[in-house]
Design goal:
heterodimer, A: 309 residues, alpha+beta, 2 domains, nine-stranded antiparallel sheet, 8 helices, elongated, B: 191 residues, mainly alpha, 0% strand
Chain lengths: 309, 191
Protein backbone atom coordinates (compact mmCIF):
# COMPACT_ATOMS: atom_id res chain seq x y z
CA UNK A 1 0.00 0.00 0.00
CA UNK A 2 1.37 3.44 -0.94
CA UNK A 3 1.69 6.15 1.67
CA UNK A 4 -0.01 9.55 1.90
CA UNK A 5 3.38 11.20 1.32
CA UNK A 6 3.73 9.32 -1.95
CA UNK A 7 0.24 10.44 -2.89
CA UNK A 8 1.18 14.03 -2.13
CA UNK A 9 4.14 13.74 -4.48
CA UNK A 10 1.83 12.30 -7.14
CA UNK A 11 -0.61 15.15 -6.52
CA UNK A 12 2.09 17.80 -6.84
CA UNK A 13 3.69 16.28 -9.93
CA UNK A 14 0.69 15.04 -11.94
CA UNK A 15 -2.74 15.71 -10.50
CA UNK A 16 -2.17 19.42 -10.09
CA UNK A 17 -1.58 19.75 -13.83
CA UNK A 18 -4.86 18.01 -14.55
CA UNK A 19 -6.67 20.04 -11.92
CA UNK A 20 -5.36 23.38 -13.23
CA UNK A 21 -7.99 23.92 -16.02
CA UNK A 22 -10.71 22.83 -13.61
CA UNK A 23 -9.46 25.31 -11.03
CA UNK A 24 -9.37 28.12 -13.61
CA UNK A 25 -12.92 27.36 -14.66
CA UNK A 26 -13.99 27.21 -10.99
CA UNK A 27 -12.38 30.61 -10.24
CA UNK A 28 -13.99 32.25 -13.28
CA UNK A 29 -17.43 30.91 -12.33
CA UNK A 30 -17.01 31.95 -8.70
CA UNK A 31 -16.09 35.45 -9.94
CA UNK A 32 -19.29 35.60 -12.01
CA UNK A 33 -21.28 34.34 -9.07
CA UNK A 34 -19.79 37.00 -6.80
CA UNK A 35 -20.58 39.73 -9.35
CA UNK A 36 -24.16 38.53 -9.50
CA UNK A 37 -24.33 38.69 -5.74
CA UNK A 38 -22.96 42.27 -5.69
CA UNK A 39 -25.62 43.18 -8.21
CA UNK A 40 -28.23 41.53 -6.00
CA UNK A 41 -27.01 43.58 -3.02
CA UNK A 42 -27.30 46.78 -5.09
CA UNK A 43 -30.86 45.92 -6.14
CA UNK A 44 -31.54 44.98 -2.56
CA UNK A 45 -30.71 48.54 -1.51
CA UNK A 46 -33.02 49.95 -4.17
CA UNK A 47 -35.70 47.60 -2.87
CA UNK A 48 -35.12 48.92 0.67
CA UNK A 49 -35.48 52.51 -0.59
CA UNK A 50 -38.69 51.54 -2.39
CA UNK A 51 -40.01 50.11 0.90
CA UNK A 52 -39.02 53.24 2.85
CA UNK A 53 -40.67 55.60 0.33
CA UNK A 54 -43.61 53.27 -0.20
CA UNK A 55 -43.10 53.18 -3.98
CA UNK A 56 -45.06 50.06 -4.83
CA UNK A 57 -44.19 50.03 -8.53
CA UNK A 58 -40.46 50.19 -7.80
CA UNK A 59 -40.88 47.58 -5.04
CA UNK A 60 -42.60 45.12 -7.36
CA UNK A 61 -40.02 45.76 -10.06
CA UNK A 62 -37.11 45.20 -7.67
CA UNK A 63 -38.63 41.97 -6.33
CA UNK A 64 -38.91 40.71 -9.90
CA UNK A 65 -35.35 41.76 -10.71
CA UNK A 66 -33.99 40.12 -7.54
CA UNK A 67 -35.90 36.92 -8.24
CA UNK A 68 -34.49 36.86 -11.74
CA UNK A 69 -30.92 37.53 -10.51
CA UNK A 70 -31.04 34.85 -7.82
CA UNK A 71 -32.62 32.41 -10.24
CA UNK A 72 -29.82 33.09 -12.66
CA UNK A 73 -27.24 32.70 -9.86
CA UNK A 74 -28.78 29.38 -8.80
CA UNK A 75 -28.79 28.11 -12.38
CA UNK A 76 -25.21 29.25 -12.82
CA UNK A 77 -24.10 27.40 -9.66
CA UNK A 78 -25.96 24.24 -10.66
CA UNK A 79 -24.40 24.26 -14.12
CA UNK A 80 -20.94 24.92 -12.71
CA UNK A 81 -21.30 22.16 -10.15
CA UNK A 82 -22.51 19.75 -12.80
CA UNK A 83 -19.58 20.52 -15.08
CA UNK A 84 -17.01 20.38 -12.29
CA UNK A 85 -18.50 17.18 -10.92
CA UNK A 86 -18.49 15.50 -14.33
CA UNK A 87 -14.93 16.52 -15.08
CA UNK A 88 -13.69 15.63 -11.60
CA UNK A 89 -15.33 12.21 -11.61
CA UNK A 90 -14.40 11.34 -15.19
CA UNK A 91 -10.85 12.64 -15.31
CA UNK A 92 -9.45 13.14 -11.81
CA UNK A 93 -10.94 10.43 -9.58
CA UNK A 94 -9.95 7.57 -11.92
CA UNK A 95 -6.35 8.79 -11.62
CA UNK A 96 -6.64 8.71 -7.82
CA UNK A 97 -8.07 5.21 -7.96
CA UNK A 98 -5.37 4.06 -10.33
CA UNK A 99 -2.75 5.41 -7.94
CA UNK A 100 -4.30 3.35 -5.13
CA UNK A 101 -4.67 0.16 -7.16
CA UNK A 102 -4.25 -0.28 -10.89
CA UNK A 103 -6.82 -3.09 -11.02
CA UNK A 104 -9.96 -1.01 -10.57
CA UNK A 105 -13.30 -0.09 -12.06
CA UNK A 106 -15.14 3.14 -11.39
CA UNK A 107 -18.58 4.13 -12.60
CA UNK A 108 -19.57 7.53 -11.16
CA UNK A 109 -23.33 7.28 -11.71
CA UNK A 110 -23.65 3.60 -10.90
CA UNK A 111 -24.32 1.71 -7.67
CA UNK A 112 -24.26 -1.89 -6.52
CA UNK A 113 -27.49 -3.56 -7.63
CA UNK A 114 -30.50 -3.69 -5.33
CA UNK A 115 -30.39 -7.49 -5.44
CA UNK A 116 -27.00 -7.46 -3.69
CA UNK A 117 -28.33 -5.15 -0.99
CA UNK A 118 -31.24 -7.52 -0.50
CA UNK A 119 -28.96 -10.54 -0.45
CA UNK A 120 -26.86 -9.04 2.33
CA UNK A 121 -29.88 -9.11 4.70
CA UNK A 122 -28.28 -6.23 6.59
CA UNK A 123 -31.32 -3.98 6.51
CA UNK A 124 -34.08 -4.20 9.08
CA UNK A 125 -37.03 -4.13 6.66
CA UNK A 126 -37.84 -5.03 3.07
CA UNK A 127 -36.05 -2.73 0.62
CA UNK A 128 -38.17 -0.64 -1.75
CA UNK A 129 -35.55 1.59 -3.38
CA UNK A 130 -31.77 1.89 -3.36
CA UNK A 131 -30.25 5.14 -4.51
CA UNK A 132 -26.54 5.46 -4.92
CA UNK A 133 -23.50 6.49 -6.92
CA UNK A 134 -19.72 6.21 -7.12
CA UNK A 135 -19.45 2.49 -7.71
CA UNK A 136 -15.86 1.37 -7.17
CA UNK A 137 -14.37 -2.08 -7.59
CA UNK A 138 -10.84 -3.22 -6.83
CA UNK A 139 -8.97 -6.45 -7.06
CA UNK A 140 -6.58 -6.46 -4.12
CA UNK A 141 -4.47 -9.60 -4.19
CA UNK A 142 -6.95 -12.47 -4.38
CA UNK A 143 -9.76 -10.39 -2.95
CA UNK A 144 -12.40 -8.73 -5.04
CA UNK A 145 -13.96 -5.72 -3.31
CA UNK A 146 -16.66 -3.32 -4.46
CA UNK A 147 -18.44 -0.50 -2.72
CA UNK A 148 -20.63 2.51 -3.41
CA UNK A 149 -22.41 5.33 -1.69
CA UNK A 150 -25.98 4.32 -1.00
CA UNK A 151 -29.27 5.37 0.48
CA UNK A 152 -31.56 2.46 1.22
CA UNK A 153 -35.30 2.97 1.62
CA UNK A 154 -37.97 0.67 2.91
CA UNK A 155 -41.71 1.10 2.64
CA UNK A 156 -43.64 3.68 4.63
CA UNK A 157 -43.25 7.31 5.61
CA UNK A 158 -40.09 7.16 7.69
CA UNK A 159 -38.57 4.74 5.28
CA UNK A 160 -34.88 5.65 5.06
CA UNK A 161 -33.05 2.65 6.52
CA UNK A 162 -29.47 3.41 5.65
CA UNK A 163 -27.25 6.20 4.39
CA UNK A 164 -23.58 5.49 3.86
CA UNK A 165 -21.16 3.09 2.23
CA UNK A 166 -22.09 -0.45 1.30
CA UNK A 167 -19.22 -2.89 0.76
CA UNK A 168 -19.29 -6.32 -0.84
CA UNK A 169 -16.13 -8.37 -0.86
CA UNK A 170 -15.10 -11.96 -1.43
CA UNK A 171 -14.28 -13.83 1.76
CA UNK A 172 -11.28 -16.09 2.18
CA UNK A 173 -13.07 -19.06 3.73
CA UNK A 174 -15.77 -21.31 2.37
CA UNK A 175 -18.99 -21.56 4.32
CA UNK A 176 -22.60 -22.53 3.73
CA UNK A 177 -24.56 -20.83 6.47
CA UNK A 178 -25.47 -17.17 7.08
CA UNK A 179 -23.82 -15.18 9.85
CA UNK A 180 -24.63 -11.61 10.87
CA UNK A 181 -22.82 -9.09 13.03
CA UNK A 182 -24.95 -6.15 14.10
CA UNK A 183 -23.98 -3.22 16.28
CA UNK A 184 -25.35 -3.94 19.73
CA UNK A 185 -26.59 -0.39 20.29
CA UNK A 186 -28.84 -0.28 17.27
CA UNK A 187 -30.14 -3.84 17.22
CA UNK A 188 -33.58 -3.95 18.69
CA UNK A 189 -35.17 -6.94 20.33
CA UNK A 190 -37.72 -6.81 17.52
CA UNK A 191 -34.99 -7.31 14.95
CA UNK A 192 -33.58 -10.28 16.86
CA UNK A 193 -37.04 -11.83 17.08
CA UNK A 194 -37.65 -11.15 13.39
CA UNK A 195 -34.47 -13.01 12.53
CA UNK A 196 -35.50 -15.93 14.69
CA UNK A 197 -38.96 -16.07 13.19
CA UNK A 198 -38.09 -15.59 9.54
CA UNK A 199 -34.90 -17.56 9.43
CA UNK A 200 -33.22 -20.02 11.69
CA UNK A 201 -30.55 -17.69 13.05
CA UNK A 202 -29.66 -17.79 16.71
CA UNK A 203 -27.51 -15.61 18.85
CA UNK A 204 -23.91 -16.74 19.03
CA UNK A 205 -22.16 -16.07 22.31
CA UNK A 206 -18.49 -15.42 21.67
CA UNK A 207 -15.51 -15.39 24.01
CA UNK A 208 -14.27 -11.87 23.37
CA UNK A 209 -15.97 -9.61 25.98
CA UNK A 210 -15.06 -6.44 24.08
CA UNK A 211 -16.58 -7.83 20.89
CA UNK A 212 -19.68 -8.98 22.78
CA UNK A 213 -20.05 -5.47 24.17
CA UNK A 214 -20.02 -3.88 20.70
CA UNK A 215 -21.75 -6.45 18.53
CA UNK A 216 -24.46 -9.01 18.47
CA UNK A 217 -23.83 -12.10 16.34
CA UNK A 218 -26.62 -14.13 14.81
CA UNK A 219 -26.03 -17.26 12.80
CA UNK A 220 -27.67 -20.36 11.44
CA UNK A 221 -24.69 -22.47 12.41
CA UNK A 222 -22.94 -22.20 15.77
CA UNK A 223 -19.79 -23.96 14.56
CA UNK A 224 -19.49 -22.26 11.19
CA UNK A 225 -20.00 -18.80 12.71
CA UNK A 226 -17.04 -19.51 15.00
CA UNK A 227 -15.07 -20.88 12.06
CA UNK A 228 -15.60 -17.51 10.34
CA UNK A 229 -15.20 -15.41 13.47
CA UNK A 230 -11.89 -16.57 14.82
CA UNK A 231 -10.54 -14.71 17.83
CA UNK A 232 -8.16 -12.94 15.48
CA UNK A 233 -10.95 -11.79 13.13
CA UNK A 234 -12.98 -10.51 16.07
CA UNK A 235 -10.04 -8.36 17.14
CA UNK A 236 -9.57 -7.14 13.59
CA UNK A 237 -13.25 -6.20 13.25
CA UNK A 238 -13.02 -4.30 16.54
CA UNK A 239 -9.93 -2.45 15.32
CA UNK A 240 -11.64 -1.62 12.02
CA UNK A 241 -14.64 -0.30 13.92
CA UNK A 242 -12.37 1.88 16.09
CA UNK A 243 -10.63 3.16 12.96
CA UNK A 244 -13.90 4.17 11.28
CA UNK A 245 -15.45 5.27 14.55
CA UNK A 246 -18.99 4.41 13.54
CA UNK A 247 -21.51 1.60 13.87
CA UNK A 248 -20.66 -1.21 11.46
CA UNK A 249 -22.81 -4.11 10.30
CA UNK A 250 -21.45 -7.26 8.67
CA UNK A 251 -22.97 -10.29 7.06
CA UNK A 252 -21.30 -13.43 5.74
CA UNK A 253 -23.46 -14.95 3.04
CA UNK A 254 -22.68 -17.23 0.08
CA UNK A 255 -18.90 -16.92 0.45
CA UNK A 256 -19.05 -13.12 0.53
CA UNK A 257 -18.71 -10.52 3.22
CA UNK A 258 -21.05 -7.51 3.20
CA UNK A 259 -20.49 -4.45 5.32
CA UNK A 260 -22.46 -1.28 6.01
CA UNK A 261 -20.73 1.91 7.12
CA UNK A 262 -23.12 4.75 7.96
CA UNK A 263 -22.01 8.13 6.62
CA UNK A 264 -24.31 11.01 5.78
CA UNK A 265 -21.63 13.08 3.98
CA UNK A 266 -21.70 13.05 0.18
CA UNK A 267 -18.22 11.84 -0.69
CA UNK A 268 -16.09 12.12 -3.83
CA UNK A 269 -17.51 15.51 -4.82
CA UNK A 270 -15.69 18.71 -5.78
CA UNK A 271 -16.58 21.81 -3.78
CA UNK A 272 -17.23 25.05 -5.70
CA UNK A 273 -15.87 27.35 -3.02
CA UNK A 274 -12.79 25.32 -2.19
CA UNK A 275 -9.56 25.45 -4.13
CA UNK A 276 -8.58 22.31 -6.05
CA UNK A 277 -4.92 23.20 -5.78
CA UNK A 278 -4.73 22.37 -2.09
CA UNK A 279 -3.68 18.82 -1.22
CA UNK A 280 -6.38 18.65 1.47
CA UNK A 281 -9.04 18.92 -1.22
CA UNK A 282 -7.98 15.74 -3.03
CA UNK A 283 -7.29 14.07 0.31
CA UNK A 284 -11.02 14.25 1.02
CA UNK A 285 -11.58 11.80 -1.84
CA UNK A 286 -8.43 9.74 -1.31
CA UNK A 287 -8.81 9.01 2.40
CA UNK A 288 -12.29 7.39 2.29
CA UNK A 289 -11.20 5.07 -0.54
CA UNK A 290 -8.15 4.01 1.48
CA UNK A 291 -10.33 3.54 4.54
CA UNK A 292 -12.89 1.35 2.78
CA UNK A 293 -10.43 -0.72 0.78
CA UNK A 294 -8.32 -1.23 3.90
CA UNK A 295 -10.99 -3.69 5.07
CA UNK A 296 -9.11 -6.25 2.93
CA UNK A 297 -5.83 -5.77 4.80
CA UNK A 298 -7.39 -5.05 8.17
CA UNK A 299 -9.48 -8.22 8.16
CA UNK A 300 -6.63 -10.12 6.49
CA UNK A 301 -8.89 -11.24 3.64
CA UNK A 302 -5.95 -12.08 1.41
CA UNK A 303 -4.77 -14.82 3.72
CA UNK A 304 -5.43 -17.95 1.68
CA UNK A 305 -4.43 -20.92 3.75
CA UNK A 306 -7.73 -22.76 3.52
CA UNK A 307 -9.25 -24.80 0.72
CA UNK A 308 -10.80 -21.72 -0.88
CA UNK A 309 -8.15 -20.22 -3.14
CA UNK B 1 -60.96 -16.89 47.11
CA UNK B 2 -57.68 -17.65 48.94
CA UNK B 3 -58.00 -21.19 47.64
CA UNK B 4 -58.06 -19.91 44.06
CA UNK B 5 -55.03 -17.71 44.68
CA UNK B 6 -53.07 -20.65 46.15
CA UNK B 7 -54.15 -22.83 43.23
CA UNK B 8 -53.07 -20.11 40.77
CA UNK B 9 -49.68 -19.73 42.43
CA UNK B 10 -49.23 -23.51 42.45
CA UNK B 11 -50.04 -23.76 38.73
CA UNK B 12 -47.59 -20.95 37.93
CA UNK B 13 -44.96 -22.69 40.10
CA UNK B 14 -45.48 -26.02 38.34
CA UNK B 15 -45.15 -24.37 34.93
CA UNK B 16 -42.02 -22.56 36.09
CA UNK B 17 -40.45 -25.82 37.29
CA UNK B 18 -41.32 -27.47 33.97
CA UNK B 19 -39.76 -24.52 32.14
CA UNK B 20 -36.57 -24.72 34.22
CA UNK B 21 -36.31 -28.48 33.76
CA UNK B 22 -36.80 -28.21 29.99
CA UNK B 23 -34.27 -25.40 29.83
CA UNK B 24 -31.62 -27.55 31.56
CA UNK B 25 -32.43 -30.49 29.28
CA UNK B 26 -32.17 -28.25 26.21
CA UNK B 27 -28.79 -26.98 27.35
CA UNK B 28 -27.58 -30.47 28.16
CA UNK B 29 -28.64 -31.63 24.70
CA UNK B 30 -26.80 -28.71 23.19
CA UNK B 31 -23.57 -29.82 24.86
CA UNK B 32 -24.07 -33.29 23.34
CA UNK B 33 -24.78 -31.70 19.99
CA UNK B 34 -21.64 -29.57 20.33
CA UNK B 35 -19.57 -32.62 21.16
CA UNK B 36 -21.05 -34.28 18.09
CA UNK B 37 -19.79 -31.41 15.95
CA UNK B 38 -16.26 -31.85 17.35
CA UNK B 39 -16.52 -35.54 16.56
CA UNK B 40 -17.59 -34.77 13.00
CA UNK B 41 -14.67 -32.40 12.49
CA UNK B 42 -12.22 -34.89 14.00
CA UNK B 43 -13.57 -37.49 11.60
CA UNK B 44 -12.91 -35.08 8.76
CA UNK B 45 -9.29 -34.81 9.83
CA UNK B 46 -9.14 -38.58 10.34
CA UNK B 47 -10.12 -39.01 6.68
CA UNK B 48 -7.44 -36.59 5.61
CA UNK B 49 -4.54 -38.37 7.32
CA UNK B 50 -3.97 -41.27 4.85
CA UNK B 51 -3.73 -38.88 1.91
CA UNK B 52 -1.40 -36.59 3.80
CA UNK B 53 0.87 -39.42 4.94
CA UNK B 54 0.89 -40.92 1.45
CA UNK B 55 1.85 -37.60 -0.13
CA UNK B 56 4.60 -36.61 2.28
CA UNK B 57 6.24 -40.00 2.72
CA UNK B 58 7.59 -39.95 -0.84
CA UNK B 59 9.61 -36.86 0.08
CA UNK B 60 10.19 -37.07 3.84
CA UNK B 61 12.49 -40.05 4.13
CA UNK B 62 13.93 -38.95 7.47
CA UNK B 63 10.49 -38.59 9.02
CA UNK B 64 9.40 -42.16 8.27
CA UNK B 65 9.17 -43.07 11.99
CA UNK B 66 6.83 -40.16 12.73
CA UNK B 67 4.71 -41.04 9.71
CA UNK B 68 4.36 -44.64 10.78
CA UNK B 69 3.45 -43.42 14.29
CA UNK B 70 0.68 -41.31 12.82
CA UNK B 71 -0.63 -44.30 10.85
CA UNK B 72 -0.55 -46.47 13.99
CA UNK B 73 -2.35 -43.86 16.08
CA UNK B 74 -4.95 -43.46 13.37
CA UNK B 75 -5.60 -47.20 13.24
CA UNK B 76 -6.22 -47.18 17.00
CA UNK B 77 -9.02 -44.67 16.43
CA UNK B 78 -11.06 -47.19 14.48
CA UNK B 79 -11.39 -49.40 17.62
CA UNK B 80 -14.14 -49.14 20.19
CA UNK B 81 -12.81 -46.44 22.52
CA UNK B 82 -14.26 -43.84 24.87
CA UNK B 83 -14.80 -40.22 23.84
CA UNK B 84 -11.98 -39.06 26.13
CA UNK B 85 -9.52 -41.58 24.65
CA UNK B 86 -10.65 -40.60 21.18
CA UNK B 87 -9.92 -36.92 21.86
CA UNK B 88 -6.53 -37.82 23.41
CA UNK B 89 -5.62 -39.89 20.36
CA UNK B 90 -6.62 -37.10 18.04
CA UNK B 91 -4.50 -34.71 20.07
CA UNK B 92 -1.49 -37.04 19.76
CA UNK B 93 -2.01 -37.28 16.02
CA UNK B 94 -2.31 -33.53 15.84
CA UNK B 95 1.03 -33.06 17.63
CA UNK B 96 2.75 -35.51 15.31
CA UNK B 97 1.27 -33.84 12.24
CA UNK B 98 2.41 -30.52 13.58
CA UNK B 99 5.95 -31.87 13.67
CA UNK B 100 5.58 -33.04 10.08
CA UNK B 101 4.30 -29.66 8.95
CA UNK B 102 7.25 -27.93 10.57
CA UNK B 103 9.68 -30.40 8.97
CA UNK B 104 8.17 -29.60 5.55
CA UNK B 105 10.39 -26.50 5.56
CA UNK B 106 13.36 -28.83 4.97
CA UNK B 107 11.82 -30.39 1.86
CA UNK B 108 11.51 -27.75 -0.89
CA UNK B 109 10.21 -30.28 -3.43
CA UNK B 110 7.39 -31.22 -1.11
CA UNK B 111 6.62 -27.58 -0.37
CA UNK B 112 6.26 -26.95 -4.07
CA UNK B 113 4.00 -29.95 -4.67
CA UNK B 114 0.50 -28.86 -5.69
CA UNK B 115 -0.99 -31.97 -4.17
CA UNK B 116 0.66 -31.22 -0.85
CA UNK B 117 -0.40 -27.57 -0.95
CA UNK B 118 -4.01 -28.65 -1.42
CA UNK B 119 -3.76 -31.10 1.45
CA UNK B 120 -2.08 -28.49 3.60
CA UNK B 121 -4.99 -26.08 2.94
CA UNK B 122 -7.55 -28.78 3.77
CA UNK B 123 -5.65 -29.69 6.93
CA UNK B 124 -5.52 -26.07 7.95
CA UNK B 125 -9.23 -25.66 7.30
CA UNK B 126 -10.04 -28.76 9.34
CA UNK B 127 -7.89 -27.56 12.23
CA UNK B 128 -9.80 -24.28 12.33
CA UNK B 129 -13.11 -26.10 12.10
CA UNK B 130 -12.07 -28.30 15.03
CA UNK B 131 -11.11 -25.18 16.94
CA UNK B 132 -14.50 -23.61 16.13
CA UNK B 133 -16.32 -26.76 17.30
CA UNK B 134 -14.36 -26.72 20.55
CA UNK B 135 -15.27 -23.09 21.11
CA UNK B 136 -18.91 -23.95 20.49
CA UNK B 137 -18.64 -26.92 22.86
CA UNK B 138 -17.09 -24.77 25.58
CA UNK B 139 -19.77 -22.09 25.14
CA UNK B 140 -22.49 -24.75 25.39
CA UNK B 141 -20.85 -26.25 28.50
CA UNK B 142 -20.57 -22.82 30.13
CA UNK B 143 -24.24 -22.18 29.40
CA UNK B 144 -25.25 -25.57 30.81
CA UNK B 145 -23.04 -25.25 33.91
CA UNK B 146 -24.42 -21.78 34.60
CA UNK B 147 -27.94 -23.14 34.35
CA UNK B 148 -27.37 -25.93 36.87
CA UNK B 149 -25.29 -23.90 39.30
CA UNK B 150 -27.38 -20.75 39.61
CA UNK B 151 -30.45 -20.25 41.75
CA UNK B 152 -33.22 -21.47 41.50
CA UNK B 153 -32.38 -24.00 38.77
CA UNK B 154 -29.58 -25.44 40.93
CA UNK B 155 -32.25 -26.89 43.28
CA UNK B 156 -33.82 -28.69 40.37
CA UNK B 157 -30.42 -29.74 39.02
CA UNK B 158 -29.39 -31.35 42.31
CA UNK B 159 -32.79 -33.08 42.58
CA UNK B 160 -32.44 -34.59 39.10
CA UNK B 161 -28.69 -35.13 39.48
CA UNK B 162 -27.46 -32.91 36.69
CA UNK B 163 -23.72 -32.62 37.18
CA UNK B 164 -21.39 -29.93 35.80
CA UNK B 165 -19.39 -30.82 32.69
CA UNK B 166 -15.77 -30.03 32.00
CA UNK B 167 -14.76 -27.61 29.27
CA UNK B 168 -12.07 -28.51 26.78
CA UNK B 169 -8.74 -27.47 28.19
CA UNK B 170 -6.26 -27.38 25.38
CA UNK B 171 -2.67 -28.04 26.32
CA UNK B 172 -0.20 -25.28 25.70
CA UNK B 173 1.59 -27.32 23.03
CA UNK B 174 -1.72 -27.89 21.33
CA UNK B 175 -2.63 -24.24 21.39
CA UNK B 176 0.43 -23.75 19.25
CA UNK B 177 -0.74 -26.61 17.16
CA UNK B 178 -4.07 -24.98 16.48
CA UNK B 179 -2.39 -21.75 15.52
CA UNK B 180 -1.60 -23.31 12.18
CA UNK B 181 -2.29 -19.89 10.72
CA UNK B 182 1.10 -18.75 11.99
CA UNK B 183 2.75 -21.76 10.49
CA UNK B 184 1.24 -21.26 7.07
CA UNK B 185 1.41 -17.51 7.42
CA UNK B 186 5.14 -18.06 7.28
CA UNK B 187 4.63 -20.12 4.19
CA UNK B 188 2.46 -17.45 2.67
CA UNK B 189 5.04 -14.79 3.30
CA UNK B 190 7.59 -16.90 1.53
CA UNK B 191 5.50 -17.07 -1.61
Amino acid sequence: MRTVDEFQIYFESELKLLLQPLEEYRISRVKIFKRIQYLAILFGFILLIAVIYGNLVLLALMILVLLFIEGFAFESISTTNRILRKDYKNNILPKVLKFINSDFEYIPRQKISKAVFEKSLLFPHEISVVEGEDFMRFKIGDTDIMFCEAEVYGYGLDSKMFDGIFISTSFNKSFNSETFIFPKKSTSLFRKIRFKLLGSSYEVKLEDPEFEKEFIVLSEDQVESRYILTTSLMERILDYKRKLNTELGFSFISKRLYCTIPNSKNLFEPALFETFMDFNFILQSYEPIILYTSIVADLNLNLRIWSKQ
Amino acid sequence: MIGFVILGVLIILIFYVIFLYNDIIRKKNETDNAFGSIDAMLKKRYDLIPNLVETVKQYMIHESTVLSDVTKLRSRLSGNISNEDKVDLHNDISKKLQGIMVAVENYPDLKASQNFLKLQASWNETEEQISASRRYYNAAIADYNNAIQTFPSNILASKFRFTPKKVFEIEEIERKNISAKDLFGKNNANR
